[in-house]
Here is the input.
Amino acid sequence: MENAKKAWSMILKDLKCEKKYFVWTFVYAAYMAFTIGFAVKGQVTAPKYLNPVIDGLFMMLIPFLGFYFNRRSFKYLTEDSYTQMLAFFRALPIPDQIVIAYRLIQIFLAYLINGTVFFGLMYFILEPTQNQMSLVEYLAFALTWIGYGMIMSGLYMYLELSIHGKGYFKITMLLILGVVVVAIIIRLLGGNMLLSSFELANRWSMLSPLMWGMLLAGAVSLVLFTNLTKRKLRIRDLV
Here is the structure.
C-alpha cells in the first residue's frame, strides 16, 4: 500500500510538470477513434466483407491506449529516456517495487482516459451499433479489447524497463509485424476478431466469455510480467 502511495505521488508530479504532453494523449485517442471508427462502421454495416486490415489495426493500436504521452515517450529512442529514468530512480534511491507500481498505475490511468475517449467517441460514430447494442453490451465489447490491450501492456512494460531504447524499438516493430501476420492468418481461416467480439458482446453482454477471458488473460499477463520485470531490474546494468 505504501509503495502504491509513493508511486501515485510520482504520477501526480508527472501530471503537474508535463501538462502539455497530456493534451496530445487526448488528441491521439480522439484521432484513433475517428480514423478507425469509420473503418469499423464500414465493417459492421457490411459484415460479409471480412477485412484483415481492420483486425490488424485494432490488434496493433489498442495496446497503445495503455500509454500516455510524456517527454520520456517521445525521447526513448534518441535519448534512451527510460534507461535514464531508471538510473535516476536508482540514484535517489527509489526501490524497484515503487518503479513497477508507478508503471502499472500509468497503464491503468492511460486505459481509463484513452479508453473512455476512444471507445466513447467510436460509439457515436458507429450509428448502426447504437441500434443493435445497448450501452452495457457496447461496454462489454470495449472491455474485451481493453483486456487484450492489457495482455500486450504487460509485455511492453517488461521491454520498456528491461532493455535499452533501440532494442525496445526493434522488438516493438517485430511485435507489430507479428500482429499483421496473425490478422492475415485469421482472415485466411475465415475469421474476424472484430465482428466476433461484437457478436459475443451483443449476445452475452457483461457475461461475454470472450470479455472475461481477455480480462483474465490481461490480469495474468500483468502479474507474470511484473514478476519478470522485478527479477530483471535486480540484475540490469543501466550503463
Remarks:
- The radius of gyration is 19 Å.
